[in-house]
Design goal:
By secondary structure, this protein is α/β, with parallel strands linked by helices. The protein has helices at about 50-65, 95-105, 120-125, 135-140, 145-150, 165-175, 220-230, and strands spanning about 1-5, 10-15, 20, 25-30, 40-45, 75, 110-115, 130-135, 155-160, 180-185, 195-200, 205-215, 235-245, 260, 280.
Length: about 280
Amino acid sequence: MKIISFDGAGNTKEVAYEAFTFSGGEEHIRFEPSDFAQSEKIRLIVRASDASQIMRLFMAVDALKRLRMERTSIELLLPYFPYARQDRVCVAGEALGAKVMASLINSLHLNQVTVWDAHSDVVPALLDRVENVSQVTLIEQFPALRAQLSRGELVLVSPDAGASKKTIKIAEHFGGEPEVVQAQKVRDLKTGDILQTQVLGEVRGKDVLIADDICDGGRTFTELAKVLKAQGAKSVALYVTHGIFSQGLAVFAGLIDTIYTTNSCRDKADFIQHSDVQLEMIEL
């Protein structure tokens, strides 16, 4: 977690703080009051890689408000919104995780909450005073990728029905230059295994870009890349806003040539690099 203080003139400084975890698992945080003497606004930047980071966020906001900073604007940049994928109840007895997390964030009464490329429209609808930075805004941060899309040099591939709307928005943003191809997958609902992947369009001899918001283990994308290459795709790249990559980068070798992502979840240095997979990352 980073704490950025803004003074009245717009100058910024990163504020150091003390934080540790007690042996019982409780999170502790402490600020030096003098660090905020000139603060007009405070921005907290949190990468919610685990539950302890969320708990530290709650503790930090409480500590700041107890420093009699009720009149100071407190904003949160939470690029990857945890539980975003739990945006519906699929089976009776489950929790609606996205709503639980949004309710907790709303209870902090922050002046603004910014997320990147929310998984669906559910999360922005649940959050108070939210700004959802769009997928196309983030793609614009990669100059080479932006140029290829602007010139229509890449075929956009939507990996499933859920990603279709965002993929079409990318094509529209770049003036309709990129061609859009739809893919679909068939899953075993009991095991979650992907049984079949189909590509509904022509990719032979073309450079393609699969676009989605989240990559966890990567199975959806590797299975799709196998089909794309079997159908003659010249190269396969992947854009995901939130790269968790829980199985590492090696699983993409020989299938996906370049991955574009952000450090909303992890830093580039956290991954073991693979010579066959080029990882391009923009940072907070």
